[in-house]
Specification:
GO biological process, one term: response to stress
GO molecular function: DNA binding; DNA-binding transcription factor activity
Strand content: 5-15%
Protein name: MarR family transcriptional regulator
CATH topology: Arc Repressor Mutant, subunit A
Number of strands: 2
Keywords: DNA-binding, Transcription, Transcription regulation
Pfam family, one: MarR
């Protein structure tokens, strides 16, 4: 089916996204993770590798407020996600070295290992999902989606 109708394109994109999301949720189920939890783990991991946005010398980790901003969710929702991850032993709260009233979120060793395992599985799953497209179509899709994503930033 070839179309240039924006509504039809939107519906096709939505259908493809639903397929990807369903596979993603099925992939996370054995790890007992939700997509929100995994996204939070990724944000915490990136902050740990880059240092906190709270400024130099503040240690590595991510404040809860920063996590909520990065995930574009309410701080209360971020607290719930972090509480769930902490209960699973995947993240921990540490006292901020420059502000003892603040806490920094970091991944535990178990969280790092789990995140790496999920990323490996995700890469394999995505490879299978997109394998129906020839290399040149995947490259074109990446270009198109990149253009659409850049337009929204």
């Amino acid at each position: 089916m070839t179309t240039t109708d924006p509504a039809a394109l939107g519906e096709l994109m939505h259908t493809a996204f639903r397929g990807l999301r369903k596979r993603w949720m099925q992939q996370l189920a054995p790890y007992e993770l939700t997509p929100h939890q995994f996204r939070a783990m990724g944000a915490v991991a990136r902050a740990g590798h880059q240092g906190s946005a709270s400024g130099p010398g503040c240690g590595t980790g991510l404040r809860l407020k920063e996590l909520a901003q990065r995930l574009n969710i309410a701080p209360r929702s971020a607290t719930e996600v972090v509480d769930q991850l902490e209960a699973k032993g995947l993240v921990e709260r540490r006292t901020h070295p420059a502000d003892r009233r603040a806490m920094l979120l970091t991944l535990t060793e178990a969280g790092e290992r789990l995140r790496e395992a999920v990323l490996s599985d995700r890469s394999r799953e995505a490879g299978e999902y997109f394998s129906v497209l020839p290399d040149e179509d995947r490259a074109e899709l990446a270009r198109i989606l990149g253009d659409l994503a850049a337009e929204r930033e």
